[in-house]
Known about the structure:
binds S-adenosylmethionine, alpha/beta, Rossmann fold, 11-stranded mixed beta sheet, 4-stranded antiparallel beta sheet, 24% helix
Amino acid sequence: MVGKGEKSSRKQDSALLAWNGKSSNKAGIPISSLQLDSVYLHGNAVDPASLPPEKRPPCKLIKGDNIAVMNHLLSTGWKEKIDLIYIDPPFWSGEDYYTNGEEALAYKDRWEGGIDSYLAMIFPRLQLMRDLLAETGSIFVHVDWHAGHYIKLLLDEIFGRGNLRNEIVWYYGGPSPVKTSFPRKHDVIYYYAKGKDFTFSPQYAPIKQYLRDRARTDPNGRLWVDQNVGKITARKFNELASEGRVFKTKTGRYRRKQFLDEMSGDMIDDVWAIPIINSQANERLGYPTQKPEALLQRVIACATKEGDIIADFFCGSGTSLIVAESMGRPWIGVDSSDVAISIARDRLTRGIEASFTLETT
Ligand SMILES: C[S@@+](CC[C@H](N)C(=O)[O-])C[C@H]1O[C@@H](n2cnc3c(N)ncnc32)[C@H](O)[C@@H]1O
């Protein structure tokens, strides 16, 4: 332990992940400009040429390799402009992913060079994300048991170990045929803030059903449950009574009225039990590895304010984008797969008032 005013002689941590060919070449394939494909205003396609740049909507869906797109964004004024990055990259699963089972190849997650080539893909991209992130911003990196332990070390290196806010476990449960180990039923989401000054709003579960079931309704239609008055001063008691917040039971005891609209449920911790999208769910689009909107709602709600800019550089079917849109946050989505972009574009044009530009590299 180091006493007050003493200087620590401990050197800075130097434990880093190494692999063959590790380099921080962030250049990738350069692109000089993005081509404006279409503009969508409130669900309708508009001729891009008919709109001057200042009239184009702030949200963008971009088709291309994210390394090129991020470099382009950095060179066109987006450095440190993004408030929240959520990514759900390939997990190093060794599989190919098809829409609705076998219809069309959405993307590949096979790596001929093994883990080295996977890490060589993700490392420079995470560095570019740090450059795009505002000083007050945060990043959520969604992975699983395949490569999560490596990714966490990279994130420590890039964002600083002290900036890890949470290792979130997304528990989705469900049946499994596996009998040789415990069924694998969770993903991990590493949540890092870029610096000390970041946005975080605690999240609360809905009020428990048993409280709703036993609630009574007051003459104004407000739901309430009765509680002990507890140890309070006479002054406080009179104050509550004058507000109609205490009542006398048939046995002559005083009880307190607790209105449900003034209560919050339990605070959400770092294990998030949210079901995966079931085969009958309305939000299901047939995109493999599509994530539930409820998961993204929680990410966006805890780490942003209305108007903050959200980016997803592996956006797939656009889950984070549609949720950002519905929560009043401008967004940027990037994916290299034609299938993903087509599904995300349809989802966004169908959805809520979405206005965005579709760009390609
Ligand atoms: C796990 S999926 C994302 C799913 C998404 N979260 C959703 O809810 O639909 C990963 C996505 O990363 C995309 N991807 C992989 N490598 C990429 C790259 N270098 N640049 C852009 N997108 C990439 C794939 O095409 C795929 O759509």
